[in-house]
């Protein structure tokens, strides 16, 4: 199978590229490479992955990559994922997540790709009344990030109806695991793990009772692999169905913390029902949070004490 992964140098994308190579797929990556590549990126190239440097907002620059790769399946993970940046710069967020997704869909259509799977998010639901939240819950995002992802999902449906491309959005809960950098737009598990390893203190925004559904990277990769070979369309939750508060996460890591005022656009409770993915993809999460946290801590670099951020929060 010929697969093109957008954002293949990123956290989730790099794990997915490795898994596809392990399974003998012909893998290409489209990435802007505006961040310094990590060691595993070079290893993927040595194993045969092809790289095309392109910004997904630039369709003319993206077309040659798709023409060269000739993908049967496109796994679209490149995105603007920082909720805070989406609040301060919603136009940029929309350019990447909405216009960028349309560019990917159009390039995929032009080369005859049969399937496009896109990374979506629990943020499309906003603060839903029912937890765990199923896929038929209302779409009511609180942040521009959630709004842009919801709009991108509509474009997936439009390309399916108009052009017959098989499309699926994977609404992922909070993904964590090795390779997630405890800086910038990193997830709270990565930030807290870095602080726990370095003996630092966390900053918790709000009262710390905000909940999230934390799903380990290996489980997420398995979901993407299942989605890439299926014919399921629409949207599926990729999650554990288990709520964990920010305070509980810090305590699981034996991490001390201080409080700071809450932030605009932050969801209070988030937990997704994964039962439809189990029924339609045959996928179920297998890694409990305690086990995933141990693996996360064990994979941290030895110099983490010098690199851990001083004042993290909850994306």
Strand content: 15-25%
CATH classification, class level of the largest domain: Alpha Beta
User: Taking Cα atoms only, what radius of gyration do you get, to the nearest Å?
Assistant: 19 Å
Measured between the Cα atoms of the first and last residue, the distance is 35 Å
Number of strands: 13
Helix content class = 40-55%
Gross morphology is globular
Largest sheet at a glance?
A: 7 strands, parallel
Can you write the helix and strand succession as a string?
EHEHEHEHHEHEEHEEEHEEHEHHH
Mean pLDDT: 92
CATH third-tier fold name of the largest domain: Rossmann fold
Number of helices: 12
- Whole-number count of domains: 2
Low-pLDDT stretches are: 303-315
CATH superfamily of the largest domain: NAD(P)-binding Rossmann-like Domain
Strand order, sheet with most strands: 3-2-1-4-5-6-11
Based on secondary structure, the structural category is alpha/beta
Ordered list of secondary-structure elements with their pairings:
Blueprint: E1 2-6, H1 11-22, E2 26-31, H2 39-46, E3 50-53, H3 59-69, E4 73-76, H4 83-88, H5 90-111, E5 115-121, H6 144-163, E6 166-172, E7 174-176, H7 188-198, E8 202-205, E9 211-212, E10 214-216, H8 217-229, E11 234-238, E12 244-245, H9 246-252, E13 257-260, H10 275-281, H11 289-298, H12 304-307
Parallel strand pairs: 1-2, 1-4, 2-3, 4-5, 5-6, 6-11, 7-10, 8-13
Antiparallel strand pairs: 9-12
List keywords for this structure.
18% strand, seven-stranded parallel sheet, 42% helix, 2 domains, 13 strands, 315 residues, UDP-galactose 4-epimerase, domain 1, globular, single chain, Rossmann fold, alpha/beta, two-stranded parallel ribbon
